[in-house]
Amino acid sequence: MKAAFMFAPDDMRVIETETPVPGPGEVLLAVRAVAICASDIHIFADGHSSGTYPSGPLILGHEFSGDVAQLGADVTGFSIGDRVACEPSWHCGLCDMCRSGLANLCRNVIFPSFPDSPGAMADYIAVPASSLCKLPDSVTYEAGALVEPLGVGLHAVRLSGLQAGQDVAVLGAGAIGVATVDCCRMFGAGQIYVAEPLPGRRDFPAKLGAQVCASAAELQALFEADDSHPSLAFEASGGATAFAETMPLVRAGGTAVIIGIPEPDEQVFSARVPRRKELTVQFSRRSRDTLDDCVSMVAESKVHVADYPTRKFPLDRAPEAMQAAMAREGDTIRAIVTP
Ligand SMILES: [Zn+2]
Ligand SMILES: [Zn+2]
User: Fold this and answer.
1) Cα-atom radius of gyration of the chain, to the nearest Å?
2) Which of 101, 206, 235, 287 is deepest in the core (most CB within 10 A)?
3) What is the pLDDT along the chain (339 residues), one digit of tens a residue?
């Protein structure tokens, strides 16, 4: 099969490699769509993921969908040709975190594309059958790949305890920010405010009904004008000053949910802001028990994933897709490779 390997930072090449063989409980998936996430960009730019380095060339990509091509031993419930989406956080089901229902915090988690587990930017990937959900015919492969970032948004909104009618602020209108806005809408949020510095990314959240500003400072000025700070804010930008920007936006007694992976990792903020306002700061880690719900939400058009601005590339052009994802040009929030 062909696969796009990262050989070194900023060095990706599509080469022939062995097709994986599905083990017990696994299926071989013919990948049809794999979306490039900000965490792929982090690994590609820096050569490591949060300090973990690959021991050799690594296949990136963890937001994917495809067709079941081969069944490993002991797999039931799937047939060859089934169209499926995947929850890429493969948990053990045995550790204390898994047993207490916190599978996204599994101590033994395997995450495809995290060194050294091969990701999905390839013709095929072997995946646990338990991580798959069948896609209705109405859901495209591209939307099936975007079910993963949608799940990140859904998980964060569930953690936030959002109430119907509650106003919210969202920092960042990349895929995770847009998914968060979409899920807030679905749960009946009041006014949704978005801060997004890239002009090309402001139209889509506006179409979803959000009021969109260019920066957190602009949002802050808006809220200060009539003391209308929302009691809930989501940080989905991963920006350099993300923590310092998010907390002042939240009304006293409210909640800030941190989803973005900040760059740099060390964040500086004034402690008196959350302290005097007695804020709850909730961190959100990937997603948990969201796959089936997200597929249903997409199939029932409760969210607008099919309309998320994307740009498609064949597998041979995966390096170009990577560059396009990093350039963040126009309105595109996900570059999608279609093996
Ligand atoms: Zn992702
Ligand atoms: Zn576990």
Assistant:
1) 20
2) 235
3) 999 999 999 999 999 999 999 999 999 999 999 999 999 999 999 999 888 999 999 999 999 999 999 999 999 999 999 999 999 999 999 999 999 999 999 999 999 999 999 999 999 999 999 999 999 999 999 999 999 999 999 999 999 999 999 999 999 999 999 999 999 999 999 999 999 999 999 999 999 999 999 999 999 999 999 999 999 999 999 999 999 999 999 999 999 999 999 888 899 999 999 999 999 999 999 999 999 999 999 999 999 999 999 999 999 999 999 999 999 999 999 999 999
User: What domains sit in the chain, N to C, each tagged with a CATH number?
Assistant: 2-134+309-338 (3.90.180.10), 151-283 (3.40.50.720)
Residues with CB under 5 A from ligand 1 (ion): 37
**What is the β-pairing status of strands 192-195 and 255-258?**
unpaired
User: Ligand 2 centre from 90 Cα, in Å?
Assistant: 9
Residues lining ion ligand 2 (Cβ < 5 A) are 91-92, 95, 98, 106
Ligand 2 centroid distance, CA of 105 (Å): 7
Cα(157)–Cα(114) distance, integer angstroms: 25
Whether the upstream peptide bond of residue 264 has omega within 30° of 0, thus cis, is: yes
